[in-house]
Amino acid sequence: MSALTDISDKVFAAFNAHDPDTLYTLYAPDVVVTSGMGTERGRDAVRLTWEGLFKGFPDVRISPTNQIEGKDAVVVQYMLSGTNTGPLFGGRQMPPTGKSINVRGVSILTIAGGKVASETIFTDQMGMMTQLGLMQPPGGGPPPS
Question: What is 16-69 written as a DSSP string?
């Protein structure tokens, strides 16, 4: 295992342990995280996002399915799963749906100086919103119950 994949593995282990303190130490102070929810700058802002996700999905888990290492980055394919029993989306809080999700995602972690310097996250947002019953599935029809 290389130093890059070691850091990546620690990130996902800390995420699955719902441990924002450890996650905080693995990210650079000026980290930039970009996802379907927008761009977070600095690990303090990123920490708020993790904490909101852990509240909204107390059993959220990432199960890596593939990992590819480059010169200064690790690309991880994964399945994201959890049950929405808490408020969603931080400041734009929505009541819990009580529904479960299981969606694909990809995270690209760029690592510098032994810390995550940037992360770009691609998650199946449409699949997540459909599974949560917040939008109709492609092609119409009622949201899943």
Answer: HTT-HHHHHHHEEEEEEEEETTEEEESHHHHHHHHHHHHHH-TT-EEEEEEEEE
CATH class of 3-131: alpha beta
How far is the C-alpha of 25 from the C-alpha of 22, rounded, in Å? 5
Residues sharing a CB contact under 8 Å with residue 44, sequence separation 6 or more, in sequence order: none
pTM of the model: 0.89
pLDDT in tens, 83-111: 999 987 655 667 899 999 999 999 999 99
Q: Residue 101 corresponds to which tokens in the numbers above?
A: 């999700």
Task: Please report, in angstroms and rounded to a whole number, the separation of the first and last CA atoms in the chain.
Answer: 43
135 neighbors 126 (Cβ within 8 angstroms): yes
Instruction: Kindly state the tokens that stand for 55.
Output: 């509240």
What is the helix, strand, coil percentage profile of the chain, to 5? 30, 40, 30
Cα–Cα distance for residue pair 23/11, rounded to 1 Å: 6
